[in-house]
Amino acid sequence: MHLLENIKEAFRSIHSNLLRTVLTALIVSIGIMSLVGILTAIDAIKYSLNETFASLGANSFEIKAKGYSNRMRRGGVQEKVYPAITYLQAVQYKRAIGDQAQVGVSAFISGATEIKANGEKTNPNMNVVAGDENYLQIQNYNLAAGRAFSPAELTSGANVAIVGTEVKDKLFPNQSPVDKYVYLLGRRFLVVGQLEKSGSTMGGGGADRLVLIPLETGNQMPRQRALTYDIKTATTSPDNLTYLTGEATGIMRAVRHDALGQEESFEVEGSDSLANTLDGLSGNMRKYGSIVGLVTLLGASIALMNIMLVSVTERTREIGIRKALGATAKQIRQQFLIEAIVICLLGGLLGVLLGVAMGNGVMLIVGGSGFIVPWLWMSGGLLICVTVGLASGYYPASKAAALDPIESLRYE
């Protein structure tokens, strides 16, 4: 019997024992479903959390000028202070990054500011920040009412503002602040939007005590000293963060004209600790999930071996006839191995489909979105099926190949 004939014979045997084949394939499919489902669920949850962490700034970093005048090195030597990042340098950096990431440029205009409107005034603890078109999104600030700055307002430096909830509650109780005017730092600003309540952040009030104005407007405000610009760069993919950090460092060195061999005149402060923690957790979950899936699959392989042994016993007379007709021990062994592998692959295909559905179902339950197709785990699952078929079928196949043809023909 040739290999092709053995394959055909395996399918004929499977068809003639359809119920047993279905039950065996289901056992294998449950094991593969557990393995692929757990791994798919972990990847799906990680994907969903990556999106959430990205919105929280986990996949971002800030660039600031290096050195502080009040910091001392060992021995009382003052640390070197580098010039602040200028507006031109921030714009050059933003243009150089291009579409690789989202860049937000902002400047702190004033703290402990008093905002006035309608004969009322806030406590003198409001913060005024000037930001560009990406500021709200990159800081994960959402609007409760109104709109963001228009391109014309950002370009011309219009006197418009977006206010936090504490400003709204104090100056415009029980009404919307949108299209109302407020006074701060000697100017009148039209309120075009209101931020959602964020709660206190380390005692600073977060977005609740914030008044946001266009970046160009902040550049035009009268001031006693030059503004210091903060640059925040964010990416939606945590896997790309390391490369992007290196790319940003090179661009900023060129923008700041840092000489070759000289230390950077700026600091890159990453906020990727959440992403790193997530990678560690997902790695442990994947490891322990694989162990659970493999244990389930081990049970399936034992069940398959048992069923194949029963099949050998039931077909003892058939094996004797084949050997009497000239089939070799190798061909008999090959026939039963192929049958075991085919059963495993049929169960594996069903298990892979069920596992992918189960993994994505878990993501939907935890509130995620999207659909993950884990090609790696699907391919790995089918490869494991072939391995399980070989491992579970080898002993029954060897036992069948070792049967004496005369004794097999006498078997009742």
UniProtKB/TrEMBL annotation:
InterPro entries: ABC3_permease_C (IPR003838), MacB_PCD (IPR025857), Macrolide_Exporter_MacB (IPR050250). Residues 291-404 form the ABC3 transporter permease C-terminal domain. This is FtsX-like permease family protein. Pfam families: FtsX, MacB_PCD. The lineage of its organism: Bacteria, Pseudomonadati, Bacteroidota, Cytophagia, Cytophagales. It is found in: Cell membrane. Belongs to the ABC-4 integral membrane protein family. One of its GO terms (molecular function) is transmembrane transporter activity. It is a multi-pass membrane protein. It comes from the Bacteria. Its main location: membrane. The chain crosses the membrane at residues 21-42, 291-313, 340-366, 372-395. Keywords: Cell membrane, Membrane, Transmembrane, Transmembrane helix. GO terms for cellular component: plasma membrane. PANTHER family: ABC TRANSPORTER PERMEASE YTRF (PTHR30572:SF4), MEMBRANE COMPONENT OF TRANSPORTER-RELATED (PTHR30572). Residues 21-224 form the MacB-like periplasmic core domain.
